[in-house]
Amino acid sequence: MSRTVSAVVAPGGGKPAELVEVVVPDPGPDEVTVRVLASGVCHTDLHYRDGVIAAEGPYLLGHEASGIVERVGPGVRDVKPGDFVVLNWRAVCGRCRACRRGRAEACVDDRTATTPMTLLDGTPLTPALGIGAFTELTLVHSGQCTPVNPAADPAVVCLLGCGVMSGLGAAMNTGGVRVGDTVAVIGVGGVGGAAVVGARLAGATTVVAVDRDERKRAVAHELGATDFVHAAEGVDVVARVRELTGGLGADVVVDAAGSEQTWRQAFYARALGGTFVLVARPDASMRLELPLLDAFLRNGTYRTSWYGDCLPSRDFPPLVELFLQDRLPLRRFVSERIGLGDVERAFESMRRGDVLRSVVLVDGAR
User: Fold this and answer.
1) What is the C-alpha separation between 207 and 229, in angstroms, rounded?
2) How would DSSP label each residue in 242-253?
3) For residue 202, what is the domain's CATH number?
4) Residue 321 and residue 243: Cα distance in Å, rounded?
5) What is the strand order of the sheet 227-230 is part of?
6) Distance CA 19, CA 342 (A)
């Protein structure tokens, strides 16, 4: 039987999101309904709201979430009612070429629910990244649910669902940071901050955090950065990173800002033969001009990182255990806990750079 619940929906095109009632149907084959406990407010949600992402609205926002499986549809075997899960927007198929070759993190056939959630008048909703979690109840593919230890705080571990995992994975999975490496992270928001944590967790001895906002200095050091470069106007970021890495440049540079300027900084701040990882999503209008000879002479590796090249079933449970053992400072990413009606205010805080993450508490979360 379908349920009517409160949810945050945006029409798109920059118009404000509103708290409205939506209809969540019973789960179909391979689908489940999840009672949402907490959901982080991510830049991707703002992109849907502002029309940056080209998809048909209206949009059911929210995707970085944790909750309890409520009902399962026919054919669901990997989760059951009562499971505490972190939702993931990459539900790998197990059948494509990447999956068959043991590279499921590069799956090209992600699965989402096909039964639509709707407005009261029957208008289908586009759920953000196939999830839609700023709601009391959501409908997702069973593969988008990763069971984790229920002892964890839902408002903290929900952030593994997108931003924090993207940053951790950019350093650990995509960048392949090793013990003794030097690392530079450009942009110390939620994703960049997580890349700092991931670099230290992987054993980096020097982690240089770079940001235009001087307020991020304290945050960067709390997350494990050994050095901070305030990228104010006139500051030569490349020279400073080289100075802090013995004149060589960083073994791994993570660009978590995603502009033409930061791309160039990351490219030239990288040590010869090092790795450059772009994890931030650039604007479609951005363009680069680079001497091809520089690309040849500097050698090394350039990679983009989608979702931190994670495999949720492999990565989420052990990361939650590290959090429970106080070895992973996930709680530091939660800047504030808010209600469903506060999402627009959270977007403004995000635009000003006042928060790492606002987290929406939905239904009885701590």
Assistant:
1) 11
2) HHHTTTS-EEEE
3) 3.40.50.720
4) 37
5) 227-230, 206-211, 182-186, 250-255, 270-278, 301-304
6) 9
Give Cα 137 distance to the centre of its chain: 21
Q: The CATH number of the domain where 74 resides is what? A: 3.90.180.10
Is residue 253 a contact partner of residue 266, using CB atoms and an 8 Å limit? Answer: yes
Distance from CA of residue 276 to its chain's centroid?
A: 19
- Is there a single domain that holds both residue 300 and residue 316? no
Same domain, 244 and 324: no
* One-letter amino acid for residue 9 of the chain: V
Nearest to 44 by CA among 59, 27, 30: 59
**Cα three-residue angle 143-332-240, rounded to 5 degrees:** 105
Q: Show Cβ contacts of residue 284 under 8 Å, excluding neighbours closer than 6 positions.
A: none
Q: Would 274 be classed as within a structural domain?
A: yes
Query: Do residues 5 and 133 lie in contact, with contact meaning Cβ atoms separated by under 8 Å?
Result: no
Residue 364 has pLDDT above 50, yes or no: no
Tens-digit pLDDT profile for residues 148-185 = 999 999 999 999 999 999 999 999 999 999 999 999 99
**Does some domain include residue 104?**
yes
* Amino acid symbol at 176: G
Q: Are residues 74 and 195 in the same domain?
A: no
Question: Residue 170: which of 149, 193, 154 has the closest Cα?
Answer: 193
Tokens of 218: 């304290």
Do 296 and 159 have their domain in common?
Answer: no
Judge whether 36 lies within some domain. Answer: yes
What domain range includes position 65?
A: 3-163+309-361
Q: What is the mean pLDDT of the chain?
A: 95
Same domain? 227 vs 189: yes
DSSP string, 19-49: EEEEEEPPP-TTEEEEEEEEEE--HHHHHHH
Does 342 lie in the same domain as 244? Answer: no
End-to-end CA distance of the chain: 29
In a domain, 282, yes or no: yes
Provide the domain count of the chain. 2
The pLDDT tens digits for 277-308 are 999 988 888 999 999 999 999 899 999 999 99
Scanning 12-141, the segments in alpha helix (DSSP H) are 43-50, 97-100
The pTM of this model reads 0.93
Closest CA to 165 of 308, 283, 287: 308
Please give the torsion angle defined by the CA atoms of residues 40, 89, 167 and 221, in that order, rounded to the nearest 10 degrees.
20
